[in-house]
Amino acid sequence: MKSGQFVLTCALVVTTVSGASGATPAKVSGATALALAGVIAPLSPVLSGAEKKAVAMLFAANNDIPYKKPIVVTADRIVCRTGNVDITTRNCEITFGKKVKSVNGSTANEIFATQALAGVPPDGAAGSNFESLSKLSCTIDPNAIRRKDGSGADCNFQPGN
Known about the structure:
The protein has 161 residues and is an alpha+beta fold. 37% of the residues lie in helices and 33% in strands.
């Protein structure tokens, strides 16, 4: 094999391997999806008050809600960081279109932990732990959740940035 072909082949292999590691879309359903939607919905600038209240009630184990239509909870990007040196550090930035919401403390911890529950892989840097996802879209169907058969909550997202 000529050296130029070898370099091209190596570049393709590296691109394929690195692309496969974080580029695979993820899907979660059931309780984990409801939890992910439940921690993001209160921050969403696009959901109505009734939709936020419905998701909150479902997440709090109250499925006797007046809201009947499916609710779609979305976020373009979620990046959370906790500190392993400065152990007080807990923050997340959630991007909804052109709006960015920053949260700290227990709210950030909830989002960080829920991303981990959903299978978002952690990444580390000096003194910090990161979790991030993009293109979050969760569909919450109150009518299906009322059946108590494990259905009614589905989320799709892209792990990493």
